[in-house]
């Protein structure tokens, strides 16, 4: 199934895919391939579904693959941000049902998307066949991290107009390089979106309640015993190099390895795989082959 774009939404018309109405809002979804379990990508904050297009296309060669934008992000309608994990998980569950994409699903969750994937698995355990965690949010983050890196020590402030004007100018070459081999009809609106003030502000707003997301997940039922591969990006991106010393970067990586090893050990069929040269914000572009292999492996385990 491969939806075509529709017009007249708050988020505008996407270059591919289409919109589905869920709870009064139009949500962007693009699916390709056939068969199941379907693989569903949950982007990180400041990311959108089409950021994972190349991996999506590879996955669609062996099963149904789904990209989407949460409410308030990308080409989906605007909503108040931040939101609870329960709201986002219920929204995704309804979207997949409305789009006719049957469960169970293999969830591929990057960064903040991990909070919503884990809550989805708590709320709809029968609809989750596996999880690939791409350096994803965990309710146990603070347990494994140094005190200076706890969730309540790294608040995000919404950038003002001067900051976003500067960021737009500085980030445009970065995004053009990032999506250089995307088709032009997708690359141009994707870059334009990423350097827009709206996308920048909404990305910051969306990750503004991480301590509440942590507490929400901790209060929920146990995570289901499903196949899981957790991956950590051990390369330092520009923001980390600017804000963290070499000592802190070393501590961060050691802590991430402990966290994602513990995540893998929490299920019967779990595995931790490091990505030594990948960076957090671009890991899907830095290590696509390794990520595709992990998705294929979890998909195969989920069908046995």
TrEMBL record:
Pfam families: Abhydrolase_6 (PF12697). One of its GO terms (molecular function) is hydrolase activity. Keywords: Hydrolase. InterPro entries: AB_hydrolase_1, AB_hydrolase_fold, AB_hydrolase_sf. Residues 39-294 form the AB hydrolase-1 domain. Coiled coil: none annotated. Transmembrane segments: none annotated. It comes from the Bacteria. This is Alpha/beta hydrolase. It comes from Nocardia aurea.
């Amino acid at each position: 199934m491969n939806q075509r774009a529709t017009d007249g939404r708050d988020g505008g018309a996407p270059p591919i895919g289409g919109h589905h109405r869920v709870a009064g809002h139009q949500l962007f979804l693009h699916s390709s391939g056939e068969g199941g379990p379907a693989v569903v990508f949950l982007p990180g904050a400041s990311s959108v579904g089409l950021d994972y297009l190349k991996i999506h296309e590879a996955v669609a060669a062996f099963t149904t693959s789904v990209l989407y934008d949460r409410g308030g992000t990308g080409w989906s309608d605007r909503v108040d941000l931040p939101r609870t994990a329960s709201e986002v998980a219920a929204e995704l569950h309804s979207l997949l049902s409305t789009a006719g994409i049957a469960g169970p699903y293999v969830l591929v969750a990057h960064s903040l998307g991990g909070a919503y994937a884990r809550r989805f698995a708590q709320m709809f355990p029968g609809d989750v066949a596996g999880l690939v965690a791409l350096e994803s949010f965990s309710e146990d983050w603070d347990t494994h991290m140094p005190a200076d890196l706890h969730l309540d020590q790294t608040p995000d402030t919404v950038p003002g107009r001067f900051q976003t004007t500067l960021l737009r100018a500085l980030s445009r070459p970065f995004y053009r390089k990032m999506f250089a081999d995307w088709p032009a009809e997708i690359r141009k609106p994707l870059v334009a979106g990423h350097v827009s003030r709206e996308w920048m502000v909404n990305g910051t707003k969306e990750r503004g309640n991480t301590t509440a997301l942590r507490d929400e997940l901790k209060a929920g039922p146990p995570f289901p015993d499903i196949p899981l591969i957790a991956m950590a990006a051990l390369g330092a991106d520009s923001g980390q190099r600017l804000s963290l010393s070499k000592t802190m970067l070393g501590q961060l990586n050691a802590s991430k390895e402990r966290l994602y090893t513990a995540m893998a050990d929490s299920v019967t069929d779990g595995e931790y795989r490091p990505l030594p040269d990948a960076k957090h914000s671009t890991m899907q572009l830095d290590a696509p082959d390794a990520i595709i292999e992990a998705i294929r492996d979890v998909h195969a385990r989920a069908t046995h």
